[in-house]
Amino acid sequence: MRLTAMDISNKELNKGFRGYDCNEVDEFLETIAQDYEAIYKENSALKERLQTLEDKIKHYENLEATIQNTLVLAQNAAEQAKRSAEREAELIIHNANENSQRTIDKANSEVVKINEEYAAIKQEFTIFRSKYKNFMKTQMEMFETLEKDYLTNYSISVPKSEVAADLEDSFSVKDEDIDDKNFSSDLDEIKSFFVND
After folding, report:
1. 4-15 pLDDT per residue, tens
2. What is the pLDDT of residue 172?
3. Does an H or E element contain 19, and which?
4. Can you list the GO cellular component terms from the UniProt entry (predicted)?
5. Bridge partners of 16?
6. DSSP assignment, residue 178?
7. What is the pLDDT of residue 102?
8. Are 78 and 107 contacting, i.e. CB atoms less than 8 angstroms apart?
9. What is the DSSP letter of 99?
10. Where are the alpha helices (DSSP H) in 18-164?
């Protein structure tokens, strides 16, 4: 069972001839170190998860920008095709050619097709944007939940005071995955709990 802030606050240490029992203090500090290490690793995992989600968000933002650019290109293509069809229709009418009506119909059909394709792309983009917004909302809610859970379950409040010299020599934690500088600073803060102000 993981050590909690309440466990630390309520821990009573038996006093020996010269003060607290050193073995009991060392044992309790070791328990604190193990629990703090677990919390530290969980925090690192959450940071990695957050980075992964941020990368996904960036990917979707790039995808949205690509779709917007595609829509602009589709609009330009539709307008260009329409202008081309109109010029072609005017030329056919001018020549009074028997094929004018067929050519006009073909041009109009192409315009309709392009407009339909554009409408379909626009609809797909609207659906994607809605899903993307819902995804972002869900992710933000999850971030808030994770943050609340972390603050509720893993935050340890420790009073600030200087650590006795004998505790400094009797306590050490080794883990290549832990930032030694930050961990040492946090460890000093935990040790200060056992020193009278």
Report:
1. 656 665 666 666
2. 42
3. strand 19-20
4. cytoplasm
5. 19
6. S
7. 75
8. no
9. T
10. 22-95, 100-153
- Write the pLDDT tens digit of every residue in 52-68: 999 999 999 999 999 99
**Assign residue 96 a region: left if phi > 0, alpha if psi is -120 to 50, beta otherwise?**
left
- Which string of DSSP letters, residue by residue, matches 43-69? HHHHHHHHHHHHHHHHHHHHHHHHHHH
Instruction: Check: CB of residue 161 under 8 Å from CB of residue 192.
Output: yes
The partner residues of 19 in beta bridges, in order of sequence, read 16
Q: What is the pLDDT of residue 59?
A: 93
Average pLDDT, the chain: 75
Pairwise CA distance, residues 78 & 81, whole Å: 5
Rg (CA), the chain: 34
Give 118 or 159, the one with higher predicted confidence. 118
Which tokens in the block code for residue 9?
A: 């606050």
CA distances (Å), 59 to each of 54, 70, 72, in order? 9, 16, 20
| Gap between the Cα atoms of 36 and 155, Å rounded | 10
**Strand, coil or helix: 172:** coil
Task: Give the separation between CA 158 and CA 7, rounded to whole angstroms.
Answer: 12
Token pair in block for residue 28: 């309790």
For residue 125, which amino acid is it?
F
What integer is the mean pLDDT of 104-131? 87
